[in-house]
Amino acid sequence: MKQGDAGQQETEDMVALFDHCECARLLGMAVRETWPGGARIAMTAEGKRNPNGVVHGGAIFTLADQAFGLAANTGPVRQVAIAATITYLSPAKGDLEAVAEQVSETVDHSLFVVRVYEGERLVATFEGVGIKEKRAKRALSRPSLREGIP
User: Fold this and answer.
1) Superfamily of domain 3-141
2) Which of 58, 67, 91, 111 could disulfide-pair with 104, CB 3.0 to 4.6 Å?
């Protein structure tokens, strides 16, 4: 297998993990496209409407978070979310699509923007910060602030 083939297989494996996880299946999500640092995921609206008849904000957030997570893991370094915020711009009643893109990075972190659409209409924007795997492992291995205190 060539180096490029190995990277392609890793991406396909990651897509399969995200496409077939319990949450994605429960909420009717499907990966439509990926590229290094980016992902496009669709979600049906059926069964996700709140009492007002619009798609529940929690479902929209979950879709955006799923796209963020996949985008953060389509490149050569795995990442874990450490922060996320969402802005709801308008209510949605139909099926949605989230497009995530990496917009900035440092040695330790990356910033992703996710735009959620109902058709051509933008319904929400989401920002997520990922910590790169190497950095995340170091952070988890740090001693507690309380260690060494009598």
Assistant:
1) Hotdog Thioesterase (3.10.129.10)
2) 111
